[in-house]
Here is the input.
Amino acid sequence: MTPPSPGQGDGDRAGGPAAGTGQGAGRRPRQVAVVPHTHWDREWYDPFQTYRLKLVRLVDDLLDLVESDTSYRHFLLDGQLAVVDDYLEIRPEHEARLAALAAAGRLTVGPWYILMDEFLVSGETIVRNLQKGILRGSSFGGVMEVGYLPDMFGHVAQMPQILAQAGLGHAVVWRGVPSAVDRTAFVWRAPDGSSVRAEYLVAGYGNGAALPEDAKQLVRRLGSMQDEFSSFLTPGEPMLLMNGSDHLRPQPWLGRVVAEANALQDDVELTITSLADYLASTSSDGLVEWQGELRSGARANVLMGVASNRVDVKQAAARAERSLERLAEPLSALFLPADRWPAAFLDVAWTLVIRNSAHDSVCACSADEVVEAVLHRYAEARQVGEGLAEQALQAVGRSMTAPGPVVVNPTAHERGGLVDVIVPAVGDPGPDVQVLSERSGLPGRLTVDGETVRTMLGLLQGARIDDEAYITDVSLAQDETGLDVTLVIGPEPRDGVPVEEVKRELFTLLTARPETEVRLVIDQPPVRRVLARQEQVPGFGWCRFAPATLAHPVRLDAATGGACTLANGLVAVEVDPGDGTFALDGVGGYGRLVDGGDHGDTYNYSPPSRDTLVDTPTTVVVTPGERGPVRATVDVVSSYEWPEFVDGTTHARRGSAAVTVTTTLELRADDPLVRVRTRFTNPSRDHRLRVHLPLPAPAAGSRAECAFTVVERGLVAEGRDQEFGLPTFPSRRFVSAGGLTVVHEGLLEYELVDIAESVDGTGPAAGTLALTVLRATGMLSRLGMTLRPLPAGPMDALDGPQMLGPVDVRYALCVAPVDPYRAADDVLVPLEVTGSFGGGDRPARGSELHVEGAEVSSVRRQAGALEVRVFNPTDADTTVRLAGRSGWLVDLRGRPTAPFEGGFALRPHGIATARLDA
Ligand SMILES: [Zn+2]
Here is the structure.
């Protein structure tokens, strides 16, 4: 790394080899804390099981070493309990040894369950990770009380608040620290004002790795390290050496060489210690302060390109997290009895999501086999989430007083929205619904022989006929003239229909009376599938299906020549058949796909020195789809010739591959959001595809969703020679700039481009937001890249990150003023529909929970009680109203902090967790 230039006016810090220890007369030796550790990437350039074979050997040897050598006083097991569980799965008999060393302070575990990435996962995933670590750590006498964040690729703005709410007063960080921090420590403040003391690991978490076995060599090494670090060291303050690095084994001679080195000289005094004890010996006086996220490349790589490699992983992460946080948990907590809370299923699913949040896992800077495992874990987590959500929705249906479709709102905000329902085909559908399909009633009565009915019913698996038809009642009777079978068929499944029992009974009767005739009565009324805009449904509530009168119906106008317009009075979308782009309210150029070369790796984008950009299709075909009044769509099919790959010798894009990109634009009644879905089969390697979205007004910065808040960013990013400060930034679900709001599913990377000096001299402003659709590279890491010359990992060739094959992405655009959290919910967490047969006691409309005044991050059950986590993403104080509810505010360890009745105040950017009384 490049040593930073000295700060202003502090002569003490400059100077030669002994400067770091010099304190004038009566000086005492500089204290050097040595913290032995290993950094255990659970999976990375090798798969998990391959690393675990090494982990088990390492921990076996470590236990022997620490137990037998009291001079090896301490070992830090990387701040993540996952490695403990991974070890104990193979060596369950050693749990007591680990626990004994932890109890004696010789070994520290946690506080995390895994060392996650902070930008590519949700705020809830970060919190659940910490809570799982703390819970698991209780079996070992507690976790390390330090927010250890050694290798994360930058840090989210709210991390100090998350740590503070878990009772952790210290963070330890490396990547992302800006040049404004010029000491080994700083005060790191979250947007709400809470802060932690942050220890900055100069030269990283391996700054004391592989210490020499010889004491004289060790003393020499310490001298040169003090020179290297001198500008960061405060006189009189201790110095920290992290004795370990990626997958490194402990150095068994460490205790001996430390004692010998101390005996050899008086300049430094080495102590093998724990991170917590080292931090307790440091001072917090006079530290510089930094507020907000740490995303600078000034001192270490932040590897910003991980946000856009393997878009399939990022989409899978978004879907899995959403299925748990936004569907399975709130629906199960609110609509199932407390004793049916699916704790074990949720624990299984969350463990998969938390394991995947590891920085090398969700970042997909890993071997192809690792990424396959990550995708599989996300798929399983999502299957659990979606399945649990469906069970809770069915419970709503079963509890309704009246029969018919029921619409459930899994989010906190009262809202209407588009629903797709099956209703009886009675009369004129009316002007406010859009009929998708009709199914006529079946012939009411037929007489068949026994063999035919056996064949017919034999095909039936349970009560399902197809996705829109289920047997909802069945009966069987007989007399001397034959058998009577009656089937009632409806659009929704019903519990407890004895189809299999009746089948068995019928087959028994047919065996006894093989020649008898069977009179089959099928009662299936005609139905139609319709789209409608559901009337307002309360937050966390339900409402019987009720189509709203459309105030702003949508219509499609197709002109000859391919021009096509979707409009609803709130926004107009005009497709340009010339280049396949579209205009929003008269501003053209949306949806321009810009394909350029990428000779980078999984960590960083890097354009080839001779790049070719392709942004003009060879042909465009515009095909009108649905025509309203509830939903209108148009397909834009654009053909391109993309270069096939980057030639490693000439650094130019070469070859030509034909690709057909289909973009579907969708506009709904009474909704200013334009939904976009783009799909194609990627034929090319080594490239980056971005969609360019013009800003209605020039923008000097962006506002992007991040864990528990919205962060503001400018047009530039800090970097250094070894990593260019590329201003591509991550957003969780939405980003806004210049009057445009973009909501996306897993398209985490954006950049403001088309930057011009503004005419009135107010500074540069961007004209376009570029959203990365795909970044395809063929190397885990690479040497000699334009924007990052040194490798960031092994230089392994990979197939997976080339993303050859189908790509299917979706996002939505809004050029009207909009609450981005509501927009994100409308796009990503739509209203749900379930069916009811009536007979329960739930009225036609209602809500299980009213939360106003803040965004809701989580609703779940903890120890039987409802627990709600909210955050205030605004700059103003708010009052969170929980109508009719009382309880206790708790911290992230579940410890009560203050009672509340009906609501509580929440500071700007504050996070609060409320446990509700029953
Ligand atoms: Zn790592």
Notes: The chain has 15 helices and 48 strands.
